[in-house]
């Protein structure tokens, strides 16, 4: 299993095949958000742009945007999450939202250690 | 600068996520989360710190007369050992606060008000008091916790057999492990339960005692987040949402607690009702929260006063204030962050413990 890298906006990125990545949110983020009840994801074929919102998550108390760590095209979405958003709270690093291909650029990504350090400074 | 209740150290101990609320620092949830806490209260028993609420005493031969004049409800038939809900209005009928009145004895009442309105309520009541009656603000000396859920009585019976039998009844000077408390069968969750008023110095001891005593029943501390989802499911109004200085109790559909056959401040403002409260279940994905505009066939007809996710219904629900001419309609749309989401009107409450299987 490939290593996770993280954004400063608390998304993780996992490389799958050459040139594709899966995107999710970190365990730190799911704890901050609380119990998730709705997830809005893009459609397969949509373009995503690094640093811009590609969807949102709604918890009992608030809505939060999820930001694309890369620019590219959505090749798959995790439909399971649409009916069971609680899976994100249960296992954040397993719950991938989208798979992105045709990647043209990456945002600045942190290693797991750098991300943990970053979270402690929050 | 927010205040801490006498139970603050307990919230830290049990890893509550502290937020500012009504001038106090209180837990919005504990580590198991809001949905867990909500279900726990519906199915077993949960414990809430409600020390932030305000408490006044009203005593004297004219105490009853003042209650009847200040509040929409009538207190003539309130017996000692009973509590009764009422609303306090401005001259135009809009709301100063909603509150509970406990009759301790003749000429002797305890009034419990919303935390955020304590000072305002005290000033208002003082300014309008008539005759021989004395009002005191004892909020700083009183702590309060609420034990709520179908197993609440089971837990309490391990500590005392002086249990108030009926809803909205109470017993003063109940001894819980050496602590002198007022034990009332009241709550803000739509479940059976008790509110325990105690001296500040006993609060921590009672909190730990209840968590220990109720371990078999599964008791856990619960926070403000679950308090809100629980009261919303039960369609209980929250000041600042369903009631406010812009909303009358008549508009909030509380006419059961309004006695128009007596004189009280704001009576004239309640006769003509142009808006009313309805319940909504969201049909499209998303939570409609307070202030969202409500539409019927493209016309703006009202706004949401409270909205959340209902764990019992597993759907987003909301209460809204709607123009009375459109209250009979069934299908609405709510503007949620620029998107029109479908909502269907439903009978309130969303949840009733009497009707469950």
Fold and architecture overview:
The complex is a heterodimer of chains A (122) and B (357). Chain A has 122 residues and is α+β, with helices and mostly antiparallel strands. Chain A has helices at 27-33, 80-83, 86-90, 112-120, and strands at residues 5-6, 11-15, 21-25, 36-40, 47-48, 53-59, 63-67, 70-77, 98-106. Chain A has a six-stranded antiparallel sheet with strand order 1-2-3-9-8-5. Chain A has a three-stranded antiparallel sheet with strand order 4-6-7. In chain A, strand 6 (53-59) and strand 7 form a beta hairpin. Chain A starts with a strand and ends with a helix. Helix content of chain B is 17%, strand content 36%. Chain B has seven helices and 20 strands. Chain B has helices spanning 8-13, 34-43, 63-70, 118-128, 152-157, 203-213, 224-233, and strands at residues 3-4, 17-21, 24-29, 46-49, 54-59, 83-89, 95-105, 108-113, 134-137, 142-148, 170-176, 179-184, 193-199, 220-221, 275-282, 293-296, 299-310, 315-323, 331-336, 339-346. In chain B, helix 2 crosses helix 7 (224-233). The longest helix of chain B has 11 residues, at 118-128. The mean pLDDT of chain B is 97. Classes of the chains: A alpha+beta (122), B alpha+beta (357). Chains A and B meet through strand 4 of A and helix 2 of B.
Key traits:
heterodimer, A: 122 residues, alpha+beta, six-stranded antiparallel beta sheet, three-stranded antiparallel beta sheet, 4 helices, 9 strands, 20% helix, globular, B: 357 residues, six-stranded mixed beta sheet, six-stranded antiparallel barrel, 7 helices, 17% helix
């Amino acid at each position: 299993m490939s290593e996770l890298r993280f954004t400063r906006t608390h998304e993780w990125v996992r490389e799958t095949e050459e040139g594709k990545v899966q995107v999710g949110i970190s365990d730190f983020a799911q704890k901050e958000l609380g119990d998730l009840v709705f997830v809005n994801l893009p459609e397969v074929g949509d373009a995503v742009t690094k640093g811009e919102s590609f969807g949102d998550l709604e918890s009992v108390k608030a809505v939060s945007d999820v930001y694309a760590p890369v620019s590219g095209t959505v090749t798959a979405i995790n439909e399971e999450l649409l009916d069971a958003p609680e899976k994100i709270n249960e296992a954040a690093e397993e719950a991938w939202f989208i798979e992105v291909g045709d990647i043209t650029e990456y945002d600045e990504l942190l290693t797991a250690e750098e991300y943990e350090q970053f979270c402690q400074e929050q | 600068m927010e205040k801490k209740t006498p139970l603050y150290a307990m919230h830290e101990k049990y890893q509550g996520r502290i937020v500012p609320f009504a001038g106090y620092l209180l837990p919005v949830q504990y580590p198991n989360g809001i949905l867990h806490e909500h279900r726990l209260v519906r199915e077993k028993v949960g414990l809430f710190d409600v020390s932030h609420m305000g408490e006044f005493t009203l005593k004297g031969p004219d105490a009853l007369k003042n209650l009847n004049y200040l509040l929409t409800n009538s207190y003539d038939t309130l017996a000692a050992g009973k509590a009764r809900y009422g609303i306090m209005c401005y001259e135009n009928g809009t709301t100063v606060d909603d509150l509970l009145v406990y009759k301790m004895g003749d000429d002797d009442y305890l009034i419990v008000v919303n935390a955020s309105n304590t000072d305002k309520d005290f000033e208002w009541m003082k300014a309008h008091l008539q005759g021989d009656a004395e009002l005191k603000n004892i909020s700083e000396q009183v702590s309060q916790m609420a034990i709520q859920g179908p197993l609440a009585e089971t837990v309490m019976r391990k500590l005392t057999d002086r249990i108030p039998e009926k809803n909205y009844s109470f017993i003063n000077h109940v001894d819980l492990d050496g602590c002198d408390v007022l034990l009332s069968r009241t709550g803000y969750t739509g479940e059976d339960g008790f509110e325990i008023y105690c001296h500040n110095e006993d609060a921590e001891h009672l909190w730990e005692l209840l968590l220990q005593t109720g371990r078999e029943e599964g008791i856990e501390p619960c926070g403000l987040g679950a308090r809100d989802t629980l009261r919303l499911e039960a369609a209980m109004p929250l000041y600042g949402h369903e009631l406010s200085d812009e909303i009358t109790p008549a508009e909030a559909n509380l006419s059961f607690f309004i006695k128009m056959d007596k004189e009280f401040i704001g009576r004239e403002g309640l006769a003509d009702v142009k808006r009313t409260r309805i319940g909504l279940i969201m049909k499209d994905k998303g939570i409609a929260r307070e202030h969202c505009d409500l539409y019927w066939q493209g016309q703006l007809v009202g706004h949401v006063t409270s909205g959340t996710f209902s764990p019992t219904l597993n759907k987003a629900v909301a209460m809204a204030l709607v123009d009375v001419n459109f209250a009979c309609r069934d299908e609405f749309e709510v503007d949620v962050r620029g998107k029109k989401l479908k909502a269907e009107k439903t009978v309130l409450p969303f949840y009733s413990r009497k009707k469950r299987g």
